[in-house]
Structures are given as C-alpha cells and as structure tokens.
Write a structure and sequence with these properties.
Elements: H1 4-19, H2 22-39, H3 41-53, H4 61-76, E1 80-93, E2 97-103, E3 107-109, E4 111-113, E5 125-132, H5 135-141, E6 149-152, H6 159-174, E7 180-184, E8 210-213, H7 215-226, E9 232-237, E10 240-254, E11 259-269, H8 279-298, E12 305-312, H9 320-328, E13 336-341, E14 349-355, H10 361-372, E15 384-387, H11 395-398, E16 404-409, H12 414-417, H13 430-448
Parallel strand pairs: 5-6, 6-7, 7-8, 11-12, 11-13, 13-16, 14-15
Antiparallel strand pairs: 1-10, 2-3, 2-9, 4-8, 5-9, 10-12, 14-16
This protein binds zinc ion.
C-alpha cells in the first residue's frame, strides 16, 4: 500500500494534467463563454468607465479617477497584488479652439488641435491657405508657402500611411516658413467629425500651431483652390503643454498555482484623447483584460502560470507607461511568457498575432507553430494565430525580447471614430464584448496551463 501522502501527490498530478488536456481546455472555454454571456462584465464596466468617468487624457483628473476605479474593480474581482506603478506623463491641454473660413465664403469649421501642438496668439493666426495632397507637392512649392497656412488633404489609405501627415505635417510646413498647418482627419469616412492624435515637432524648425479639419472641410477647401479662389482662414488655439504630471500603470494578478514566476500579461491602455469617451480607444482593451481575469477567478479555475493584468497610462501622447514598466521590471522581463495587448476597439477578435522582432525567421516559424497548439482550446472563437505586430504599450518590452501578442479586432468602423467626439459607448455591441472577454480569458488560461515558450 502506498503512503497516503504519495497517493495524494499522484492524484494531484493526474488532476492537473487532466486540466490541461484539450477536452478540459475546451470545457473551460465553454464555461468562460457562458459566464461572460451571463454576466456581461466587460460591457458593464465599459459603460461605467465611459459614462461616469469619460475621456481620460494624460494629466487629467479623469485619468486619475480611472486609475483608482480600475484598482477597485480588480480588487472586487479577487485579483491580488493590485497596485498602481507611478510614472510621470506629459500634460498637454487643449484650451479653447476655433477656426473660421473668411474667404471665399464665411463659415465656421470644426477642428481639433493635434496633441502636443502649441497654441496661437490670443487673436489667432489669420492667413491664406495652400492645400497640398502630399509632402512631394509641399516640397515643390517650397518657399511659396511662407506666411501661409498649409492644409494637407491626403485621403486615407490605411492608418500607417496617412498618419505620417498628422505626425510630421507641422514640421515639414514650418521648414518653408508656414505659420500654421492643418491636416485632413486621418480616417476613412466622416460625419463632419475631426480626429485628433499626437504630432511631433522637429527641433530643426519653428513650432507652429496645428489642428485637424474634417474630411468635408479639407475637400471643400481643395475644390476652392482648384477653382483658383483665394482661401483665407483664421485659426485660434489655446493649447499649451504644462509640466509633466504624475500618473500610473495599474497592475493586478491571478497568481499561478504551479509556476507563479512565469507571467502572462493581458493589457490595454487607460488613457484616451480628451474627446468622446475613449470607448473603442482603448476602454475596450482595458475591460477585456480585467474581465478575462475576473472570469477565470470567478469560475474557480486555477491557472498554473501567473496572469497579470496591466492597464497602461499615456499610450496616446508619450508611451511613458510602457517605457516605465520596462525600466521598473527589467529583472523579470525574461520570465514574461507573452505580453498581450488589445488596442483596436471592441469588435470581434480576428487574430492573435505573435510579435518577435528580434527572432530569426526559423525561430518565428517555430514559435508560431507552438502558439497554434492552442487552436483547439480556442476553437469556439475562430480567431487565427499568425505572425505580426503586437501593440504600442508593449513595444518597449517586446524590443527587449518579451514575446508580444496583438489581440486584433475586426475594426470595420474603428478608424471612422477613434480619436473623435464620436468614440462613445453607444457604438459598442454587448455580444461582441462578451465574446472578446471570453476569448481572451480562454487564451490566457489555456496558455497558463502549458509549458509553451516563444523565445
Ligand atoms: Zn489606443
């Protein structure tokens, strides 16, 4: 007869390996999905974040409220080690802003100053407008734009392509003596809604004020120029950059039952632009991450590895949360199995893409093959595993060798509304929210039950 203690160890071992079998993981997935659909936790949390706290730009009191709220939600969900990790963040404020077309027809224009822009003098900047369709057109005009306002009317050909005009437009125009610059909103469609976003100055050229106009306005001004009409406009912006402000990443965990030092990060960013409610960008990623952990905990599932929720600060205009996390956690980066980021809205997840920027092609292929061994457990969600990008917030640790995973959503309407007054909760589907929270919970739990490593 075996000693009782030995028998107990065997039973535990059998029990734990049974927890990781494909059938057991599929059963866990079904329970997670049922619980998500019963409780709608991600949907309800996002409604609260949007309606009661609202948009959350770095340095704002709303972001401080969101940081406190997220910790209370994690504690209520039974997460442990819940805390805020302080970082200093840029503090840009929009102030009052307006624009008026003076010639050839007088009318107000909807604008949104770009994050980081300087303001105008109190009386504003009044000047003729030159419309260009590309940086090449600007370069051809060169000094002819001196003393004028340059408007970039560049149609949306994907975010990565068109956003270059938002980032660099002011510096490129200032190089030739422009007094301000405007950019057509970076988005595929518009209901006269301007899109803000961060911009960068070039220390080589003067800082000039810069704002986004709507697609409607950009195309109208372009038509006026094509007809040979003189376009005159007044731009007023009260934007300013204040001293850096205190902020924090929010962290909470489900400690692993067997390998607590091995960590799976689930993440989204708490900050947003100072318009709308930051529902798609990125309230959704925040609540998916929190809800995935809550679902696992509430069903009494015991992940073998630690599942750590990290809610980043300052993704939109500085990335100080991601950079600060890298610096504060350097010693344990080697133990992070993956860092998942959801930052593409609330529609259904389509892919989990594995980001290994420093790995060889062979190592990437091998790692992807390992990741695909979770496909059975994830069957119900139909999400694909592939190689690709992860996310801005995790990029500092991914650059240090941590495998990144981007949770990429369908995003059919994401770029229509992100960074606008229209990024609000009413556009969120409860079914999609339930689905995504359960998908992320299943992914994290299934990975936590394995020995899979991707580097
Ligand atoms: Zn975002």
């Amino acid at each position: 007869m075996l000693p009782a203690r030995f028998l107990l160890t065997c039973l535990t071992a059998v029990c734990l390996s049974a927890q990781s079998s494909p059938d057991a993981l599929r059963a866990a997935s079904e329970r997670l999905r049922a619980e998500a659909s019963r409780t709608h936790g991600a949907y309800e949390d996002l409604a609260w974040l949007c309606d009661r706290i609202g948009h959350r730009l770095s340095g704002s009191p709303q972001l401080d409220q969101a940081i406190a709220w997220a910790q209370s939600r994690m504690k209520a969900a039974g997460l442990v080690n819940v805390h805020a990790e302080p970082v200093m963040v840029p503090h840009w404020v929009r102030g009052q802003e307006s624009a008026e077309l003076l010639e050839p027809a007088r009318r107000p224009l909807n604008i949104l100053g770009l994050g980081g822009s300087i303001g105008t003098p109190k009386e504003g900047v009044t000047a003729d407008v030159v419309v260009v369709g590309s940086f090449d057109e600007l370069e051809k005009l060169g000094p002819a734009v001196k003393g004028k306002i340059v408007l970039y009317d560049v149609p949306f050909k994907g975010y990565g392509h068109t956003v270059a005009y938002r980032h660099a437009g002011a510096a490129r125009a200032a190089k030739f003596g422009a007094v301000a610059s405007l950019v057509r909103s970076v988005g595929p469609v518009s209901l006269d809604t301007p899109h803000t976003g961060v911009m960068d100055y070039d220390p080589a050229y003067p800082k000039i004020p810069t704002a986004a106009v709507t697609i409607e306005a950009a195309t109208q001004l372009h038509r006026m120029q094509d007809r040979g009409e003189r376009i005159r406009l007044r731009l007023q912006m009260g934007a300013q950059t204040l001293p850096d402000a205190p902020s924090a990443n929010v962290v909470g965990e489900l400690r692993g039952s067997e390998k607590p030092e091995e960590v799976i990060i689930l993440s989204g960013h708490l900050d947003s632009w100072d318009v709308g409610q930051g529902a798609q960008d990125d309230g959704a990623g925040v609540v998916f991450s929190m809800e995935a952990a809550r679902l696992i905990q509430s069903l009494g599932l015991k992940p073998k590895r630690t599942i750590r929720v990290v809610l980043w600060t300052n993704e939109e205009n500085g990335l100080r949360g991601g950079l600060g996390y890298r610096d504060a956690h350097r010693a344990e980066l080697k133990d992070i199995v993956v860092a998942v980021e959801s930052d593409s809205g609330s529609e259904r997840v389509k892919t989990f893409s594995l980001d290994l920027p420093k790995a060889s092609a062979q190592a990437k292929a091998d790692a992807l093959a390992s990741l695909k061994s979770l496909s059975q457990a994830m069957e119900a969600f139909g999400a694909e595993f592939r190689l690709g990008g992860s996310g801005a917030d995790v990029s500092p640790i991914v650059a240090e060798g941590v495998p990144g995973i981007g949770m990429h959503h369908a995003a059919t309407h994401y770029f229509d509304i992100h960074h606008t007054h229209a990024d609000t909760f009413d556009k969120v589907s409860r079914d999609d929210m339930d689905f995504n929270a359960a998908a992320l919970a299943t992914f994290a739990y299934a990975l936590a039950q394995t020995d899979l490593k991707f580097r």
